[in-house]
Every structure is written in structure tokens, then in C-alpha cells.
Amino acid sequence: MTGDKPGEDDLVRLIRELVRRRAPGLLTGIGDDCAVLEGHGGGASLLVTTDLLIEDVHFRRRWAEPADIGAKALAVNVSDIAAMGGLPRWALVGLGCPDGTGADEVEAFYEGAVAVADEHGVAIIGGDTSASPAGWLVSVTLLGEAVRPVLRSTARPGDVIAVTDTLGRAAAGLAVLERETAPRGVDSALLDDVTGAHLRPRARVDEGRWLADAGGVTAMMDLSDGLATDLGRLVAESGVGAHVDVERLPIAAATRAVADALDVDPVDWATGGGEDYELLVVCDPVLFARLRDGLADATGTALTAVGEIMAGSGTRWLDGRGRAVAVAPGFEHFRG
What we know:
Order of helices and strands: HEEEHEHEEEHHHEHEHHEHEE
Strand order of the largest sheet: 1-2-3-6-4-5
CATH class of the largest domain: Alpha Beta
CATH architecture of the largest domain: Alpha-Beta Complex
Number of domains: 2
Number of strands: 12
CATH superfamily of the largest domain: PurM-like C-terminal domain
Radius of gyration: 20 Å
Largest sheet: 6 strands, mixed
CATH topology of the largest domain: Phosphoribosyl-aminoimidazole Synthetase, Chain A, domain 2
């Protein structure tokens, strides 16, 4: 804990200490994308995850429609299951709304949530509703299954660090949405691409399951708070270090176009923007090429090597000549 205003990781460490007693049937507790529980009769393990989405922290009603909020609330939880290589199955949805919220808004919220649930074969089986004294508050608990859950605590020195698809699109979309006018010189299709990435993130379930089944993946998690923050969590859980070549980070043309228009370094969005919900994949270096090519064939999604797991601790960020560079930190839920 640091002073009177702890960060999210500080609070997680505190809670972890307070509830460290292991329960029967618990295989993996606090510190990963999901809790992992023993399955019945030696079958698949049960995965459990939960996320809060709070107005003006995770979304703003100025641009997020109720259907967007519902869709995002399901997607970010599905992404946690995907990060373990699992299959999402059942969801509980809690919704708190302020006075004046119309039935049509609540209906639209659930339509957005159901659309994402249906896409991934998830059944919404219950939840709760409440009045909220301020803005909207959404809580989703999602359960899934995995035969061989992939953890974030099992990376090894020498492993390749890779990411799916591209980084920074959601941050670029948020930058566009926060402006009163669209940035000049950027095609509307590119603007729609990045704002859609922020409003309606896509969970990489097929990719996560394929990678978990393919063999050679030693650790995995999803990128919710930015590569700088989330890779830091992975190496801390694994007791290792890492180095990343920032010039190898995959950044979409749409992201670069918006960054250029707004005079922003797109690498800052790639390392610190957050809410990409891509997979951070750590794998055996000998098998990387097979995993990269196989994932592209199976799902159409690119897998890009960006660094290496090292002995030691912490993450070094390097340019193409191996010189240390500073990068933007990731999203902090308790930042004032």
C-alpha cells in the first residue's frame, strides 16, 4: 500500500493476503484472469471471473449507448475466459441505473449484452437490478470451462512474448470520442474502426482456445489495462523479467492515421492505452512460427512476436537498436 490512495495492484495484494486461505476445490485464486476450480468427475475445470463497469470510469454516456454498455460488459468478461483458453458458458448480470432511466434504455442494454452472449454461446442465467445514486453501474460474473487452463504465472526465461492482432485501436477510438469534432484528414471508415474498437471490443475466444490446444503456449492473459501494465503483471506472477522491442509492436493503419492527425505517438496508445482485449501470449520460441502460422490459418488473426521473457524481474522497453526507451503506463482504475 502506498499512502492514502492505493493503486489497483496495491489493493489486489492486500485482498490476496486477507483471503489467502485456500478453499477445497480451488486450483488458482486471486492473481489471474479467472479463478480456476476443480471440475466434477475429473472433467474440465470451472473458470469464474467478474468485472465492474462504472459510468465515467469505464464508459461515458455522452457517446456510449445502452446497447454499447451491455455489449462491452459481456465482452470484457468473455475476454477473461478467452485468456485462459476457455469456453464461456453462463453469465450473471447486475445493473444499477439512476432515476430517470427509461425501460427502453434497460431493454437496449440487455439487447447488447444478449447479442454478445449469443455470439459466444453464453446463457445469461440471472443477476440483479438496483437504483443507483449516480451513474450507471454494471457487474457481470461469468463462468466457463477449460480442460487445460493457461495461467499468467507460468512464463519461462527464453519464451517469446507475442500479441494478437494490433494494439492501440481502442485508445485511438477514445481519443476521437473525447473530441467535439472529428480529427481532420482522417477517413470516416478509419474513425469508425477505432471508435468501434473502444465501444464494442471483441473477445478472442476462438484464438484463445486454439492457442491453448495447440501446445507450446506457456502463459497467457488478455490486455485490458495496456501492454505496459498487463505484461508487468504477467512477469510478476511468473517471477521473471522481460524485454520488449517497441518497434515491433503491431499498430493498425487506422490507429496511426488518428495519431498523426492528433499529433500523438501511437506507441503510447499501444503500450498504455488499454481496453484492446487482445491476447498477450507467451510461448516456446521453437514453436512460435508454427503457432503464428496455425493461428492465422485457423482464425485469420495475426500473432506478432514483440519481445522475450528474461531471468530477473521487471520489463525493459527497447528501440530497434536495443536502447532503453520510456513508454506510457497502462490504465489505472484508481487514478485520480
